[in-house]
Amino acid sequence: MSPPANPRASTAPVTDAATTAPGTALTTAVVKSDLAGPLRDIVARYPKARSAIMPALYLAQDKYGHLDGVVYAAVADLLRVPEIQVFEVASFYTLFAREPRGTFHIQLCDNLSCMLLGADHMRACLEHRLGIQAGQSTRDGMFTLSLVECIGSCDVAPAMMINQDQYSNLDEAKLTDILDQLTLGNPTEPGDSGDPGAQEEQP
Amino acid sequence: MSELTLLKHIDNPDAPRIESYEKSGGYEGLRRVLKDFSPDEVIEYVKACKLRGRGGAGFPTGIKWDFVPKEDGKPHYLCCNADEGEPGTFKDRLLMERDPHQMIEGMVITAYATGCNIAYVYIRGEYGLSIRRVQDAINAARARGYLGDNILGSGHSLEIHLHIGAGAYICGEETALLESIEGRRGMPKLKPPFPAVAGLYECPTVVNNVETFACLPHIFRLGSDWFTSIGPEDAPGPKLFALSGRLKQRGVFELPMSISLGALIEDYGHGAITGTLKAAIPGGVSAPMIPASGFDVGMDFSSLAAVDSMLGSAAVIALDETSSIPVVARRITEFFSHESCGKCTPCREGLTWAAKILRRIESGDGLPGDPAQLEMLCGGIFGNSFCALGDGAAWALAATLKHFRPEYDALITRKTATG
Question: B166 vs A8: CB contact, 8 Å cut-off?
Fold first, then answer.
């Protein structure tokens, strides 16, 4: 088996027709007026406004899907910090998306515990089914496939997240089912590890 | 099987609710602390319990608190390190999702002892359910008077806020975590000064792990005799172990630290999925792996240090005969290379280089000098990197070469012979 390339390290752009960038119609003024209210409460939690950069980027990402220069400028204005400080943060943390992503962001863990229980096969299944490589999006803008580092679901490996939901104990049949449901528009219940039944019993 | 404390209510779906927590003795420890203890007495009590940090380094918690200056006129900050990112580790997640008030109560006790009025819980962004459960627990605790102004009439006040991480393993390192809360890239800072003296916003700051906080309510409810009666003398108290990898049973188990790695794997992990185990990583992927012949080692700080490994996050990842050690080493090294913050050259460049060699070996293009090259790189990274990330990466890789060199040689010579 040839070793996988490392799609995390690349900045491989998503397929160009992937999504319509929601940011195109946005102006700094619009973003500022969207974020000003919720950001006011957040800033109050910290002695210095700079601390609110990460929460502000999360607010923007939740609202617009991804982050770009318009967002950085708006956040910088609202927090009265230089724009470069906002960009430094946005470009350091992997959960901040600086490119458009598909409606469903599939984040497959292939770190050690998941790898030992078949994550590489799950990757091959996902790539085959979606017709893309890890690090890319489908042309219809539905799916983005990323490989991610450990998501703390090692006991129920292999595991992945789709947007905010965790799916665990994956196999080929389960993967097919999850993707079928998402394609049809009715997501299956994610394997929430908060469900006591999902945990191994104490002997 | 000893009686469970931290995980006692984990299977009760009502456990995250404050009513349920109070019914099982929750917040009694805090009431006792506020009624009978001065802040200094809390610190002395925790010191006497020999509670050691559950995040990885095992530093004595009470001694860490004692470094915080008294009456210095500055605000003091408290941080909960819930940025659980060490691959193989999922114990804090369980505590936050299933019984989060233990951690909240422990934070209030710590804040009282160290004079903190503002606390931040730094939870990794991937832990959506933990984030919701901890926020709900904070809201409920506040409504009951365990947080906010003048807690239970003690005169002490505390607000706890969440700060959500965004996918950077390095933020589990405490100075990087503090940088991240300050709105910067998560890059470690030189110590000293230690956070206890100059941490968040240059003010005295206490940083402890979720599980460390979760131990505190029980210490003050059940007493130090209860705590020190569990496990070895130099590392007492209940401990959570996360089991994953090629084991028949995987999950989180609460046990005294005296248990051996072999017993943990056989009695709780129910042994290898296929055939026999060849090695185990005892404390998350930074901890050097131990070959099966060495499984008779105690899962505590000093016993593991004596065999050149570490307890770390107490996350055991088992490898059986289907697991290729060079492939495992490649994956671990790629992880560290990806998560290197880039601040120091040995870690940033050394790990990139090592990962490249490991990929070459795995693809069958390894050169006879590659294992020696890797050893040279490990020597160059270890002790020369800015923080423990580089050290852990080099140490973990070096152990694979030390114990399983023939597996590397086989991959390399196979190519040489046929090519």
Answer: no
Alpha helices in B252-387 (DSSP H): 261-263, 301-306, 325-339, 345-362, 370-381
Q: Is A39 helix (H, G, I), strand (E, B) or coil?
A: helix
Q: What is the pLDDT of residues B364-417, one digit of tens each?
A: 999 999 999 999 999 999 999 999 999 999 999 999 999 999 999 999 987 555
CB of B87 less than 8 A from some CB of A: yes
Give the other-Cβ count within 10 Å of B8's Cβ.
17
Report the residue from B128, B250, B330 with minimal CB separation from A164: B128
pLDDT digits (tens, 9 = 90+) for A61-107: 999 999 999 999 999 999 999 999 999 999 999 999 999 999 999 99
Chain-chain contact of A95 with B166 (C-beta, under 8 angstroms) = yes
B397 inside 8 A of chain A by CB = no
User: How far from B285 is each of A108, B139, B242, B309, CA to CA, in Å?
Assistant: 19, 35, 12, 11
| Pairing status of strand A160-162 against strand A165-167 | antiparallel
**Is the separation of the CB atoms in B336 and B319 below 8 Å?**
no
**Are B129 and A201 in contact (CB < 8 Å)?**
no
Residue of B126, B202, B243, B339 to mutate, testing the A interface (most A Cβ within 10 Å of its Cβ): B126
For residue A125, what are its two tokens?
A: 């299944």
Q: Do A54 and B166 touch (CB under 8 A)?
A: yes
For every one of its 203 residues, what pLDDT tens digit does chain A have, with 9 covering 90 and above?
344 444 454 333 443 333 344 445 789 999 999 999 999 999 999 999 999 999 999 999 999 999 999 999 999 999 999 999 999 999 999 999 999 999 999 999 999 999 999 999 999 999 999 999 999 999 999 999 999 999 999 999 999 999 999 999 999 999 999 999 999 886 666 654 443 333 343 33
Distance (Å, whole) CA B295 – CA B319? 12
Helices (H), B25-72: 28-36, 39-49, 61-66
The answer to whether B274 faces chain A, any CB pair under 8 Å, is no
**What is the C-alpha to C-alpha distance for residues A45 and A52, in angstroms, rounded to an integer?**
9
Which chain B residue lies closest to A91 (C-alpha atoms)?
B185
Subunit contact B94:A199, Cβ cutoff 8 A: yes
Q: What is the pTM of this model?
A: 0.93
| Of residues A81, A89, A111, nearest to B335 (C-beta) | A111
Q: Which helix (H) or strand (E) holds A144?
A: strand A143-148
Instruction: Write the DSSP symbol of residue A198.
Output: G
Angle, vertex CA B333, rays to CA B330 and CA B334, nearest 5 = 85
- B417 CB within 8 Å of a chain A CB: no
d(C-alpha A201, C-alpha B412), whole Å: 43
Residue B164 phi/psi, 5-degree rounding, is -95, 125
Element (H, E) at B320: strand B315-320
Tokens 């999360």 sit on residue: A58
Contact flag A111-B87 (C-beta cutoff 8 Å):
yes
The complex's ipTM? 0.95
**CA diameter of chain B:** 79
Alpha carbons B222 and B6: distance in angstroms, whole number: 13
CB contact under 8 A, A51 and B249: no
